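hiii, so i know i said id send this last week but things got crazy w the move. better late than never?? heres the sequnce for the chain we talked about at the cafe, plus the structure i predicted for it. fair warning i was half asleep when i ran it
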Amino acid sequence: MNKILIGAILTILLFGSFWMFSYFWGQGAGNGDNYELANATKMDIIQKTVASGSVKPRNEILIKPQISGVIDELFVSAGQLVKKGDAIARIKLVPSPTTLNQAKSNVDLAELRYQDAQRELERQRRVFKDGVDIEQSRANFDNAQKQEKRQRQLLDEGVISAQEYEGFKLELELAKNALDNAKINSQNNVKSFEMNVDIRRQELDAAIANLQLMQEGIAGKSGQVSNIVKATVDGMILDVPVEVGSSVIERNNFNEGTTIAEIADMQQLIFEGKVDESDVGKLKEGMPLKLSIGALDTEQFEAILEYIAPKGVLENGAVKFEIRASLKPKEDVFLRAGYSANADIILAKREKVLAIQERELIFDEKGNSFVEVEKAKGRFEKIAVKTGISDGINIEILSGIGEKEKIKLQKTAKDL
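okay and structure toks below
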């Protein structure tokens, strides 16, 4: 019984093995004729690289206050268009008692200095009017004039020589010059004291304005609203990072100050992105870009490459180079700052050139490229070809084959 069972099993195994051999042999024999052919065709090939980045205004201006205090009122909001000089916010000053007392003391001191300067000016004007500061020079001139007159009479009478007379005449001229200079100096002294009064008046006005600014927030005498923060450029308000009641710090040499608003011209936009080091050597300033905005999937924008960073940055194990491109906005499409975007950078372009799909190439161990060309039915020959640029799918054929040759399509793992 066991022998019969074993014999049956062996028979089944033998029959199954024969059937499988026949099936796979038939499949293999059939595959010899299972291939596809194609011709090289004329087409446009564009070689490009993609840079990821974002859309930004060319210049973003941070508006900062010139005085410290608390935001009393905001006049703008994000998205609003403003002109240079428009009010952005009003700041309420909160001076300390010490600062306020110091401002009052500065007013009192400036007033005393102004009064002293006025008294000195009046005194100098009286001196100038009475000729007190030129009395000595005038006396010397009068004396020299008398001496010259007496010596001229003696010269006419022949008592003294002409040479002796010339000495007295020279003394008269020197005395006259000294008197003229004394008059000029006296006049300049008056002008100097008048200038000093003006300076002291300006100091007093500045001290009063500073005190008014601390007490009321407005420099009333000068007519200048110093606690109003104004726009310094035309543009759109991108952000207002403060609220009413927020404390703000003035901008000075020791700190950057609190940003009250960000303003940018949204008609002057740029694309900032990064490209891999393998592609940066192919880039040149002035190259055209095609921008695709993630939030606007149906729109494409043109841009011109204007900057390539001279230094790369290591990111996730790869060296990246920053690029910037001037973007050409469309009148009917509003672009927002910070939109993510991808830029197609055209590295090379060939129009109406002979090309095949890149996957049809065969390479030897030296890196030479070949294609299989049909010479007869079912018989193929490897032909060396010289290739040009590739767009990742199609590749340019420079020499080796023409449009008439039938090329065997290489099967991929997906086709098997």
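btw The chain has four domains: 1-34, 49-57+265-351, 60-93+227-264, 97-216. thought thatd interest u
miss u guys!!
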